[in-house]
Amino acid sequence: MIDAKYIYGLYKKYHVPRKVIEHMVKVAKLSEKLCDKFAKRGYKINKNLVIEAALLHDLVRVYGGEGHGEAAYKILKNLNLKKVAILVRQHAFKRVDDLKSWEEKILYYADKRIEGTKKVWLRTRLRKIRKRALAAGVPLKKILSIEKKVFKLEREIKNALSGR
Length: 164
Prior knowledge:
Radius of gyration: 15 Å
Shape: globular
Helix content: over 70%
Number of domains: 1
Number of helices: 9
Mean pLDDT: 93
Structural class: mainly alpha
Distance between the termini: 33 Å
């Protein structure tokens, strides 16, 4: 397990703005709640791994733009944090098709539910993501296809937690 001092050292080293740290902390809190709900339903979830990845998923957000997940993946992998790195890589909006484990799905979903430091409806958050993606030149058809899959992921999570 990565200790808090190490994580805060990384924040300092990569000059992570306070608002980004606060976002990651909120994503970690929501991820923890989801992990606990999955555990109560009998799923084996590596909660520590999900929380660590949540606390580092936007480590280089201010540098990497849409490629920040990949940049953080490389940094974390080089620090011998391969499992955390893999989860961090998977949180990118476009990687919804690549999600396999519940840990990956929980982090991805939790990040999509936290706008800044507030928990918002998925539709609200996706509207903001759509606006950024359009500005970055991503075709609307592709964005809408990904959004549809994110809503499907939300249903999958809700069904798993309700026992359906």
